[in-house]
Design brief:
The chain has about 290 residues and is mostly helical. Helices cover about 75% and strands about 0% of the residues.
Length: about 290
């Protein structure tokens, strides 16, 4: 892969990962049209790492709070086990600590529940996804599906639910739909945001949930791909090219997040929907013409 290819793929990844237009679909279309000979897994891992850094930078306060509350949750759970045995053996009546005592703890558990079906779909559908990425028709269909969901975002009224109002069944449902975004052309952000709003989430909470749900998804994808590249030998020059692509993806991704946060306040997603329909149409035509 040339450094130009790495820059181009990194730019596309950063621009589209956090906009509801599907980064995987754009990358698949770009590789097929330009015949970019990309080595695959390791470069994909580094692109994921780059975009993950962008999420950490943009949502550092929320992620720090989730980490702290997660540690406290584990500690309280352990203390409750000790209380249980003490009450049982010493006939005490010590009160148990409340585990889900605030919205951040609830949010952490909801995100973990959503991650389960997403991870399972990613693992079991990985071979099918590789086949879908090798042509232009699959990402074209995915972009059409994304466009439909983006239209729903504009016309579906936002609710009032915050973490304490959301059930774990709802989180599971969101995870199932998020897992569908493993297919090229289907935007993880777009479909997650649409389902959150359809489930009655407060607009601000829906936005935060959709972005934070990306962390375990992107991290899991990177780890899964990293497992499959063990033993791969690369030259220092090639690795440097990969790092450049990842750095571009992270830098551009951070600004894409800022753009998306502003767009969410206006809820004018019909423009993204039209864009997905147009790109999907072009990809479908190229699939049969080229």
């Amino acid at each position: 892969m040339s450094i130009i290819d790495a820059l181009l793929l990194g730019l596309v990844q950063g621009l589209t990962e956090f906009l509801p237009v599907s980064s995987s679909g754009h990358l698949a279309i770009l590789k097929n049209l330009l015949q970019i000979k990309e080595t695959g897994l390791l470069f994909s891992v580094l692109l994921h790492v780059g975009t993950l850094v962008a999420v950490f930078a943009a949502f550092r306060r929320d992620l720090k709070k989730l980490l702290l509350e997660g540690c406290k949750l584990v500690y309280d759970f352990w203390e409750n086990i000790r209380v249980y045995f003490k009450n049982r053996h010493e006939q005490e009546a010590i009160r148990y600590r409340k585990l889900v005592s605030n919205n951040y703890r609830r949010l952490l558990l909801l995100l973990l529940v959503s991650t389960i079906p997403t991870a399972l779909e990613g693992v079991f559908l990985s071979n099918l996804v590789l086949q879908a990425e090798s042509n232009l028709l699959a990402p074209a269909i995915g972009l059409f599906i994304t466009g439909v969901f983006l239209l729903i975002i504009d016309f579906f009224p936002a609710g009032k639910k915050i973490p304490k109002d959301v059930s774990y069944k709802t989180a599971l449902l969101i995870g199932v739909f998020q897992g569908i975004a493993v297919f090229p052309g289907i935007s993880r952000l777009g479909i997650t945001l649409a389902v959150c709003l359809m489930c009655g989430f407060n607009k601000k909470f829906a936005m935060k949930y959709a972005f934070l749900a990306a962390v375990p998804s992107i991290l899991g994808a990177a780890v899964w791909e990293l497992i499959q590249v063990s033993g791969l030998k690369l030259s220092l020059e090639t690795f440097g090219v990969y790092i450049v692509g990842a750095a571009v993806a992270g830098f551009v991704g951070y600004f894409s997040i800022q753009i998306m946060l502003r767009m969410l306040k206006r809820r004018k997603f019909i423009f993204f929907a039209v864009y997905c329909f147009l790109i999907g149409t072009v990809a479908a035509i190229c699939n049969f013409v080229l």
